[in-house]
Write a structure and sequence with these properties.
This protein is an all-beta fold. The protein has no helices and ten strands. The strands form four sheets. The chain has a three-stranded antiparallel β-sheet, with no helix packed on it. A three-stranded antiparallel β-sheet has the order 4-8-7, with no helix packed on it. It has a two-stranded antiparallel sheet with strand order 1-2.
């Protein structure tokens, strides 16, 4: 006997089944204030995702330039790079929490 979960809308159309693909979080990491990268083998199937949540304090006086990392998911590797601006090399790099997983 098959056991599972299926959800139907009011019209009787199935909207969800346990056979559907559901996202699964694999892990998380902090970027700190330096460029970096991490790898996770389960991201290799090309169906990975990554979210970036900025952490840190509200800018104080004179702290108007903030640098958030650019995050790239490439195969099994997640890389982040902080931008540099020639007009303001002292921009404060913002530590972020990266949460990653697969669909």
């Amino acid at each position: 006997m098959t056991v599972g979960l299926e959800i139907y809308n009011a019209a009787g159309v199935r909207t969800f089944s346990t056979n559907d693909r559901v996202g699964r979080v694999l892990g998380s990491t902090y970027t700190g204030t330096a460029d970096g990268a991490i790898s996770h083998g389960e991201l290799a199937n090309g169906q990975g995702f990554c979210t970036c949540l900025p952490l840190g304090s509200i800018p104080g006086p004179g702290d108007y330039w903030l640098a958030f990392p650019s995050v790239v998911l490439d195969g099994t590797t997640i890389r982040w790079v902080f931008p540099t601006w020639s007009s303001n090399t002292a921009a404060r790099r913002v530590n972020c929490l990266l949460v990653f997983g697969v669909w």
